[in-house]
Write a structure and sequence with these properties.
This protein is mainly alpha-helical and about 425 residues long. It is built from 18 helices and twelve strands. Bound molecules: glutamic acid (GLU).
């Protein structure tokens, strides 16, 4: 037996598309609320639209929910419950609250009701003065139920204590309430979560970046960072705290503390949060994330030395916004066909062929090519040549990576190894010979 403060809530996705960030956040709030109250979290697949529902979407939705760190206690498929909805429609017909016409069943709204109101846990009291005037199809000609009807029956039969869903469903709420009443069911409580807006205002759309969870995963965002960021969009753990895991959030989450106003999605903030989560990983955890992430991505050259690749990835660990940054930032460690970025041209204007040649020779003669020795030799050579260290650092970085910025130069050199470093220095000398 569940005690009355143990919530029963549900997330009710329609498998007509991938799980999008708004849906994921609704799912998170439901899950947190259920886990906080030690109640029950139900997944209800609203696959009544047989033409638009796809197995591929369903698989991805379930996969994304698990990936984000959530689980469910029960799962139902509305497509397996069509008989039930038809039975209830028949009951309404028998009671004179619905009628059949053209092979469909229509619900008669109770026009005696002048208004309907709810005490929304997030938005407070909402009074619906404009009640539906039209009669509404509840069972279509093909025998499938329409959303408001199947939703209402399932929320009642599954004994929801609270319906947490997106604000875009507020307009459906009075219709559903009239159906609950006609069916003699008690009406659950509601909590409508505000929409997620783009930074430019307006609803999130492809135009402003990825909208589905799988795209973020593909792009190398960590599940914990996405979950944390989505939570923070409309809820705050208090103080100025921003980094919070689901396990921690479930102890303190309160649905009443969810903001009423629409939240703006900030890619910069998400990137910052993701980089924090990457930094927090141990080297081993990070490497296995990278390994998993790179599967099927065809990034590494064939027969690459695994130990070398690991050292390269670790060089970048604390500098990534997302794992896919490696494709651009670490490419020079695996391929030597890179060109010098446009913004390095200024650095390359000064021809330091002679000096770099001396450096390459010193490196070739160095007993130990580790970063301490490399750094010592580098600084000494610069001084001997009458250069400031940084005057040599900039062109050498460009030589080795084609880029203006990157991880610590000396550690990078140790990882790349003497042979590669010397070859790349010569390549820059050749470039100067040909271009400057
Ligand atoms: N299947 C609906 C949707 O995906 C669920 C709405 C609800 O939670 O009532 O928007």
């Amino acid at each position: 037996m569940k005690s009355s403060d143990q919530a029963i809530v549900r997330f009710a996705p329609s498998p007509t598309g991938y799980l999008h960030i708004g849906g994921a956040r609704t799912c998170l709030f439901n899950w947190l609320y259920a886990r906080h109250t030690k109640g029950k979290f139900i997944l209800r697949i609203e696959d009544t639209d047989l033409a638009r529902s796809k197995q591929e979407y369903l698989d991805e939705i379930l996969e994304s929910i698990k990936w984000l760190g959530m689980d469910w206690d029960e799962i139902y498929y509305q497509s397996k419950r069509f008989d039930l909805y038809r039975d209830y429609a028949q009951k309404l017909v028998d009671a004179g609250r619905a009628y059949r016409k053209d092979d469909a069943v229509f619900f008669k709204y109770d026009f005696a009701n002048t208004n309907v109101e709810i005490d929304d846990l997030i938005r407070g009291k909402i009074v619906f003065n404009e009640l539906p005037k039209e009669e509404e199809v509840i069972i279509k000609k093909d025998g499938t139920p329409t959303y408001n009807f199947s939703c209402c029956i399932d929320d009642a039969l599954m004994e929801m204590s609270l319906v947490i869903r997106g604000e875009d469903h507020i307009s459906n709420t009075p219709k559903q309430i009239l159906m609950y009443k006609a069916l003699g069911f008690s009406v659950p409580q509601f909590a409508h979560v505000p929409l997620i807006m783009s930074e430019e205002g307006g609803r999130m759309s492809k135009r402003y970046g990825a909208t589905s969870i799988r795209e973020y995963k593909e792009d190398g965002y960590l599940a914990e960072a996405i979950a944390n960021y989505l939570l923070l969009l409309s809820w705050s753990p208090g103080g100025n705290r921003e980094i919070i895991t689901l396990a921690e959030a479930k102890d303190i989450f309160e649905i009443k503390k969810v903001n009423k106003t629409a939240a703006a999605f900030s890619m910069d903030k998400l990137n910052w949060m993701n980089s924090e989560y990457i930094k927090k990983k141990s080297p081993e955890e990070y490497l296995s994330l990278v390994e998993e992430y790179l599967k099927g991505k065809n990034f590494l050259p064939d027969n690459i030395d695994k130990e070398y690749a690991k050292k390269v990835f670790l060089l970048f660990k604390d500098r990534l916004s997302k794992l896919s940054d490696l494709f651009v930032r670490a490419r020079f460690c695996f391929y030597d066909d890179y060109t010098y970025d446009e913004d390095t041209k200024e650095i390359l204007q000064r021809n330091l062929s002679k000096e770099i040649k001396v450096l390459a020779e010193k490196f070739s003669a160095l007993a130990n090519f580790n970063h301490e020795e490399v750094e010592k030799e580098f600084r000494k050579t610069a001084t001997d040549l009458g250069l400031k260290t940084k005057e040599l650092v900039h062109p050498v970085r460009v030589a080795l990576s084609g880029k203006k910025v990157g991880p610590s130069l000396f550690e990078t050199m140790e990882v790349l190894g003497r042979e590669r470093v010397v070859a790349m220095l010569k390549r820059l000398i050749d470039y100067w010979g040909a271009n400057v």
